[in-house]
Amino acid sequence: MEQLGLSAPVIFFAAIFTNNILLTNFLGMCSFLAISREVRSSLGLGFAVIFVMTCTSGLNYLVYYYLLVPFGMEHFRFIAFIIVIAAFVQLVEMVIERSSPVLYVILGIFLPLITVNCAILGVALFMIIRKYTFLQSVAYGAGGGIGWTLAIVAMGGIREKLRGAKIPKPLEGPGIALIIAGLMALAFVAFSGMIQIQ
Predict the structure, then answer these.
(1) Number of domains into which the chain is organized
(2) Helices assigned H by DSSP within 70-167
(3) In angstroms, rounded to a whole number, what is the distance separating the alpha carbons of residues 26 and 135?
């Protein structure tokens, strides 16, 4: 079951830089573009994604290999993975609402939408496709979450700095955000020669 030649630390760092789930696989773009207007909200959502992605990658591994596979129900993996992710998002939502009501209001609708964040589901599916072990799956989930957070916080910082800049009228708003995302993706692709995980 183990992917040959790749240890958990290698998979962890590759998921952050060379195989960034957001900037090389382009998963989770909707919340990335919508929430990344400032660093604070980006960081809050990023920490929530790290927690959910790390925990659910381990739980989804266990559900898949110890519940679905033994009973020949692998075709239910999408439903099972979404149920596990939804349960964890509900937990994160309750914790943020009680501990930081301001962040809860800032994140708004995007906090419950972590449930359908395709980056989190993508990590769960990639770990099955690539036949990772439990430790590799958790490392990939944690690295994927940190990589996603790194990208959204960087975007939040850049967009905060651009508030006072003179941007051509047609590029204001989504236009400049997409250009920045494209340039960030090019920068992360430059790391791809270092480590590739397939």
Answers:
(1) 1
(2) 77-99, 101-107, 118-129, 134-161
(3) 24
Q: Among residues 197, 49, 70, which one has the least CA distance to residue 136?
A: 197
Indicate the Cα dihedral angle 73, 51, 119, 36, nearest 10°.
160
The range of the structural domain enclosing residue 181 comes to 8-193
Q: What is the pLDDT of residues 109-146, one digit of tens each?
A: 777 778 778 899 999 999 999 999 999 999 999 999 99
Is the residue at 1 inside a domain? no
Q: Is residue 198 domain-resident? A: no
Average pLDDT on 183-195 reads 77
Q: What is the pLDDT of residues 28-57, one digit of tens each?
A: 888 888 888 888 888 888 888 898 899 999
39 domain-assigned = yes
Q: Is residue 3 part of a domain?
A: no
Match 């990344």 to its residue by tokens. Answer: 36
- Answer for the pair 21, 140: CB distance below 8 angstroms, yes or no: no
Please state, in angstroms and rounded to a whole number, the distance separating the CA atoms of residues 160 and 67. Answer: 46
Rounded (to 5) percent helix, strand, coil in the chain: 75, 0, 25
